[in-house]
C-alpha cells in the first residue's frame, strides 16, 4: 500500500511540475506602451487572438479585430473593450477564405486608418473543405489569405516603420511538407478527408507560415519592417471547435490540464510584437518567448521562393 501511495505521490508531483513549469511557460516581459500605435489581429474574436488583443489594448494601442463572423466579432469587441478599459478597439470584417473579402478589408482599412504598426497574422483553422475561390481551406485560410493581406498592407507598414509582422505558426510545421505538384494542379496542400490527412494538411499549412516568414524577411531587408514566426504552445482554445463532439469531450480533460490556457498561449506572440531589441532576429522562429532554430526544410530558400511565387500567382498579385 505504501508503495502505491508513493507512486501516486510521484505521479502527482511530476504532473504538478509539468503543469506549473512546462505548460505555464515564460511570459512576455516587455513594458512597452502603444499609445498612438495601430495593430491588426486576425482571428481575434476567440482564443489567443482575443487575449492578444486585450493585452495590446491595455497598452494603449488602437486594435483592429479582423474576424470573419460579424456577430462574434462585435461581441468580442465589446468584451475586449470592457476587459481592457479601452474604447480604441474596432471590429472590421475579414474572411481569409475569400480573396474578395481580403481586398475589401485592406481597401477599407487603408482609407480609414492612417497607421499600421503591427500586423499579427493569428487566425488559423484545422478543417477540411474549400474556400470560395476553390483553394484547399487550410491552405487558403492559414497561408494564402495572410499572404495576400500582408502584401496589400505592406506599404502602410513601411510608411509607419519601425513596424512588425507576426506570423503565428506551430511546431506542427516540423511534420509538414509542401507538395508543389498538388498546389499547382488542385490549389491545395493535399487531398483526402481522413483524420490523418486532416492533421497532415494542417502541418503542411504551418510549414507554409514558416517559409512565408523566411522569404518575407529577405524581401523586407532595409525597410525597418521586421517579421517573426512562432509556436504559441499547445493551446486549450477553440481551434478544434469544428471537430466531433465526442472527440471534444474525450480531449477536454487532457487539453485543460496539459495545454496552455489562452493567456499563457499568447505570450510568445506578445514577445515578438513588443520585445525591444529583437530587430536583428527578423525572419527567425520563436517558442516560449525564446528564439529557436528551424529545421532545414522550414528555411529552405528555394522552397520559400517557389511558395511565394505560386502564392502571388494564385492571389492575382502578378
TrEMBL record:
GO terms for molecular function: oxidoreductase activity. Keywords: Oxidoreductase. The keyword S-adenosyl-L-methionine does not apply. The keyword Oxidoreductase applies. Transmembrane segments: none annotated. PANTHER family: DEHYDROGENASE_REDUCTASE (SDR FAMILY) MEMBER 13-LIKE 1, PHOSPHATIDYLINOSITOL-GLYCAN BIOSYNTHESIS CLASS F PROTEIN-RELATED. Belongs to the short-chain dehydrogenases/reductases (SDR) family. This is Dehydrogenase/reductase (SDR family) member 13b.1. It comes from Xiphophorus maculatus (Southern platyfish). The lineage of its organism: Eukaryota, Metazoa, Chordata, Craniata, Vertebrata.
Amino acid at each position: 500500500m505504501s508503495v502505491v501511495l508513493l507512486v501516486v505521490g510521484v505521479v502527482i508531483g511530476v504532473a504538478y511540475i509539468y503543469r506549473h513549469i512546462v505548460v505555464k511557460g515564460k511570459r512576455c516581459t516587455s513594458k512597452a506602451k502603444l499609445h498612438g500605435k495601430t495593430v491588426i489581429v486576425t482571428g481575434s474574436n476567440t482564443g489567443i487572438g482575443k487575449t492578444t488583443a486585450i493585452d495590446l489594448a491595455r497598452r494603449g494601442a488602437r486594435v483592429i479585430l479582423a474576424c470573419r463572423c460579424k456577430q462574434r466579432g462585435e461581441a468580442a469587441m465589446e468584451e475586449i473593450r470592457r476587459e481592457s478599459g479601452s474604447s480604441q478597439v474596432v471590429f472590421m470584417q475579414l474572411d481569409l477564405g475569400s480573396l474578395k473579402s481580403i481586398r475589401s478589408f485592406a481597401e477599407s482599412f487603408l482609407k480609414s486608418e492612417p497607421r499600421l504598426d503591427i500586423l499579427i497574422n493569428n487566425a488559423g483553422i484545422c478543417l477540411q473543405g474549400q474556400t470560395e475561390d476553390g483553394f484547399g481551406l487550410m491552405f487558403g485560410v492559414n497561408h494564402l489569405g495572410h499572404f495576400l493581406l500582408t502584401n496589400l498592407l505592406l506599404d502602410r507598414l513601411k510608411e509607419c516603420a519601425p513596424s512588425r509582422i507576426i506570423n503565428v505558426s506551430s511546431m506542427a510545421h516540423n511534420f509538414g511538407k509542401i507538395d508543389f505538384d498538388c498546389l499547382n494542379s488542385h490549389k491545395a496542400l493535399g487531398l483526402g478527408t481522413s483524420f490523418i490527412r486532416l492533421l497532415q494538411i494542417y502541418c503542411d499549412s504551418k510549414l507554409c507560415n514558416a517559409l512565408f516568414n523566411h522569404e518575407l524577411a529577405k524581401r523586407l531587408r532595409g525597410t525597418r519592417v521586421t517579421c517573426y514566426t512562432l509556436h504559441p504552445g499547445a493551446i486549450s482554445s477553440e481551434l478544434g471547435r469544428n471537430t466531433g463532439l465526442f472527440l471534444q469531450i474525450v480531449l477536454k480533460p487532457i487539453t485543460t490540464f496539459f495545454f496552455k490556457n489562452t493567456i499563457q498561449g499568447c505570450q510568445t506572440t506578445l514577445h515578438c510584437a513588443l520585445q525591444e531589441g529583437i530587430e536583428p532576429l527578423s525572419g527567425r522562429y520563436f517558442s516560449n518567448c525564446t528564439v529557436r532554430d528551424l529545421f532545414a526544410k522550414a528555411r529552405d530558400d528555394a522552397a520559400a521562393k517557389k511558395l511565394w511565387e505560386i502564392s502571388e500567382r494564385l492571389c492575382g498579385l502578378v
